[in-house]
Amino acid sequence: MRPCKARKQRTSFSFQTLEKLNAYFEKDQFPSGYEFSRIADELHLEKRVVRIWFCNKRQALRKSKQ
Asked: Where is the signal peptide (predicted)?
């Protein structure tokens, strides 16, 4: 049997953080790696969390257009 891999706890965003993320998304839906790092530093989040938020937001946008 394989040992269970611990999952990361789900990130919860404050209202202000979501407002800023949405504002960045309106400006550019596909930011560069550098921009992900800059946004993550500004919002005190991990770069990975910001990148995944953008991926999920683009996916939700595609689903809503169908």
From this structure: none
Ordered by start, the domain boundaries in the chain are 28-65
pTM of the predicted model, to two decimals?
A: 0.86
Average pLDDT over every residue of 46-53: 97
The token duo for 18 is 């979501």
The CA–CA distances, whole Å, from 46 to 1, 43, 52, 66 equal 32, 9, 10, 31
Homologous superfamily in CATH for domain 28-65 = Homeodomain-like (1.10.10.60)
Q: How far apart are CA 20 and CA 12, in angstroms?
A: 14
Structure tokens at 17: 């953080």
